[in-house]
Amino acid sequence: xxxxxxxxxxxxxxxxxxxxxxxxxxxxxxxxxxxxxxxxxxxxxxxxxxxxxxxxxxxxxxxxxxxxxxxxxxxxxxxxxxxxxxxxxxxxxxxxxxxxxxxxxxxxxxxxxxxxxxxxxxxxxxxxxxxxxxxxxxxxxxxxxxxxxxxxxxxxxxxxxxxxxxxxxxxxxxxxxxxxxxxxxxxxxxxxxxxxxxxxxxxxxxxxxxxxxxxxxxxxxxxxxxxxxxxxxxxxxxxxxxxxxxxxxxxxxxxxxxxxxxxxxxxxxxxxxxxxxxxxxxxxxxxxxxxxxxxxxxxxxxxxxxxxxxxxxxxxxxxxxxxxxxxxxxxxxxxxxxxxxxxxxxxxxxxxxxxxxxxxxx
Length: 362
Description:
Radius of gyration: 20 Å
InterPro entries: WD40/YVTN_repeat-like_dom_sf, WD40_repeat_dom_sf, WD40_rpt
Largest sheet: 4 strands, antiparallel
Number of helices: 0
Main location: nucleus
Order of helices and strands: EEEEEEEEEEEEEEEEEEEEEEEEEEEE
Number of domains: 2
Structural class: mainly beta
Mean pLDDT: 87
Number of strands: 28
Subcellular location: Nucleus
Keywords: Nucleus, Repeat, WD repeat
CATH class of the largest domain: Mainly Beta
Helix content: under 10%
CATH topology of the largest domain: Methylamine Dehydrogenase, Chain H
Protein name: Nuclear pore complex protein NUP43
């Protein structure tokens, strides 16, 4: 079932909601083979049976004259996973998209998607390389390496070696630190984030510890929080975008490392940086569809527009120095979302009330 609405701003918005049978822990678009082959990946959990699964959905547009813009989703493949999925990421190779799924039991599961035949296949796994829940995971651009972080303070790298998986520990905080998110910045660099709104830049060419750190102490101890999500723009790899507790969204520019660029939330008295959310920001992504309102004055020091989803049901676009633009305000949490790389006007998000929403901007 789809419900369509439109925004009152200059940007027209269509929202289509699709109830599901299970709770959705994470989701994302898979890379497109063509404009006729679009797929969404879901990580689901059934609270009654405690079963979890990966589901591959086919996304098509209806061709009826009455509702030509309405999408339609069809389940193509479903695989039961041995544990509940905590984080889900995919490579961007349309011919061989690899899927990395981390679990609440500390495992890494690797799958392959066949987008032509609409199937999912299990490839390999690494068991128990984290103690407890894996908080974040990311896949390198070529799909050959995975990086993971956990609440146990461990950072692990997993690589494909001779058809198998080889893992090594980059860092172990021995329970003294906790990580919530990780993101590749280059084939040899990645950024981690965790408690205290801290960020760490790691370079595999310089082992032993992070090569640069940002300690989020701008609130002078008045609040504590954790980074839940990190994004790095492919054309500006020196700037990290982070979202976390208390509606906080900020950027860390490696060229000016001492102070964060606060886009929303705590630590600012700037009215334009007021957060559209007062609760946890679960996910943050750069929004390549939104053009900066100050495009004539845009520079390398200006943070590009971003999109967030939150525990209090907000999906919004945030731009430095501007008031946020609210896309959705749901009566339940928006747990995760993704922007289609090939068609950035399209967004998919998961709602806590066991449904997904597909948004189209025009």
